[in-house]
Amino acid sequence: MGFTTDEKINFIADLYCPARVIADETGCSWEMLLAQAALESDWGNKCLPGSFNVYNIKADKRWKGPSRVYHVTETVNHHTVWVDDAFRVYPSYLASLQDRAKFVQENPRYAPLREPGVKGNYKEEAKALKKAGYATDDKYVKRLIDVVECGMMKKAVARAQARGCAAVLPLLEVVLFDGAKVPIASTPVKLRQDGRDAQVETDASGRFVIRITPNSGDVQLKVFDKYQDKWIPLDPIAIAKPAVSRNVTLLAPTFTAHTNTREHEKTSPPKPATKPTGGEAPTHHPGIAAIPAGAKLKKVKVAKGDSLARIAANNGVRYQTLAKLNGITSPYIIRPEQELLVPILDKAPKAGPAKPAVVAPHTAPGAAAGSVAAKKGVAGVEHAELARILADGSPALHTVYGRNAQSHPQTDLMHATRAPWMALAQTEFEKGVRRRPGAQNNDPRILEYFTATPSLPRSFAAVDETAYCAAFANWCMGRAGYRGSNSAGALSLRHWGRSTRGNKPAFGAVAVIQFPGGPHVTFVAGISPDGTRIATLGGNQGHHHEVSHSYCPMTYVLAFRYPANYPDYDEDYVLHDVASDSAPMNAASTH
Questions:
Q1: 3-state secondary structure of 160
Q2: Average pLDDT for 558-581
Q3: Phi and psi for 87 in degrees, rounded to 5?
């Protein structure tokens, strides 16, 4: 029983949006894509069920994708016979049309279709197809044009346009930060795209998502500053041709500090330090990632004009480290003559090339050789504790109160960031992101990482089998307000940003690794007790190509890199021993 007229109209309506996407990508006419589909499939009546194979293309030896055997009729010596044959199977109509477009684009025989004046003009494309030998029917050109211009095609297009094409359009994910790299949350944003205006609102993490319409051009944006009561223009977002899904980080040229008008305390005595000079730090400091248990402490007396930030910087640590160590909470008041406990850190590494380490096995009791630590933390900081430490890495802008040399109240604005991308990476680890078995069973989170590497061809960005270590690093950096390399190539990060001090391992630094079988990138989470291996947190590593914790020999590391505008401190170079997942780190497990 054949298709009804309504079913035929629905078939073309379902193809309309994918055809518009292909036309936007290649410049070909969407009308010709629909006309050929209608003509060659009898308006969908002869499409093989469950295949999305619009043109009923067989799975010959050149086809590397999934296929299925169908019982179909063929004409042999003028006789119709039934045969079993394998045909290509696609995950969607969009993939089917992309395959057809790729065939025409890459086949020299159809080069005339790509000539100016032909490409994008369905009538001229029909003539070029016939001339190139696509069909032997003398009336093929007229039949194609008649299909494009017939009433049923117009009804199908109208039905599709009424539905809208949002589901197949590329996504643009924008993360918006203020000038201090603090997310601009729950704030209106005005958009102008393709001559049309719209308004969205950022979520709690400063994020919003829009669809990119074909031929939209640059996206113009403004964010509303409620404190100045005006709209602030942002840098426009350039849309590539063809348009692809991507992740963008924008910084607004303004920031707001939340403070109060309370008068600084004058009479209450300063809190005394609770440990003697040279004493040991308490054995547990939740959130003080860089101060290991047993670290030495000293006392520092606050002088007139000192600020918490200045004391911290002079000692190579962040102000929030001193605040936590001394029990100082917001609004972070310090006063002259107050004694503060300050950690005594090793000197920061001097500039110069890193010396190769001698790789030695490091085996925790009860763990397999080379695994360093089991997931429960036989050795090293456990993952739950690391998550608590990383929670303090979220961007925030604090007001820090003190008194200047004239004893007048002063307020400093201090940024609490410490490798904030690491908190994002840890969250992804806790979600269990990993490559999924099966040709069409892709982990959607991995596909989202590829939005941070827009230069990656769409066919590679559509499957989680593509190596995603660099995409993961770029995605985490972008979501934290820092620019990545925008490339899915691991070695693209070798000269990105800036080197760590002396090319030494530092907390949150990107480690660019060269295994004997290929490159890999990951984040530095710690270091083994003997200093021969870095503890890592990265994507596309481990048994199932997951986001995982693992260890890597120092001898394989080419470079340690930070974002160019990231302010590192001495404490970033004091690393913990962090437990691994016993996940392998080699070329096979990272590709």
A1: helix
A2: 86
A3: -125, 155
* CB 254 within 8 Å of CB 181: no
Please report, as a single letter, which amino acid is at residue 460.
F
* 410 backbone dihedrals φ, ψ, rounded to 5°: -135, 150
pLDDT digits (tens, 9 = 90+) for 204-220: 888 898 888 766 678 99
Residue 270 near residue 341, CB atoms below 8 Å = no
Question: Does residue 433 contact residue 539 with C-beta atoms inside 8 Å?
Answer: yes
Residue holding tokens 């080379």? 370
Phi and psi for 501 in degrees, rounded to 5?
Answer: -65, 120
CA distances 381 to 190, 288, 289, 508, 528, Å, are 45, 12, 10, 15, 11
d(CA 438, CA 3): 33
Name which of 329, 164, 134, 168 is nearest 242 in CA terms: 168
- Which two tokens mark 137? 């029917």
Q: pTM for this structure?
A: 0.67
Q: What string of H, E and C letters represents the secondary structure of 252-295?
A: CCCCCCCCCCCCCCCCCCCCCCCCCCCCECCCCCCCCCCCCCCC
The C-alpha atoms of residue 466 and residue 173 are separated, in whole angstroms, by: 21
Strand ranges for 369-449 from DSSP E? 397-403, 409-415
Express each pLDDT in 55-105 by its tens digit: 888 888 888 888 889 988 777 777 888 888 899 998 888 888 888 888 888
Strand blocks (E) in 395-448? 397-403, 409-415
Cα(26)–Cα(35) distance, rounded to whole angstroms? 17
- Are the C-beta atoms of residues 301 and 339 closer than 8 Å to each other? yes
CA distance 36 to 31: 9
By the 8 A CB rule, do 480 and 472 touch? Answer: no
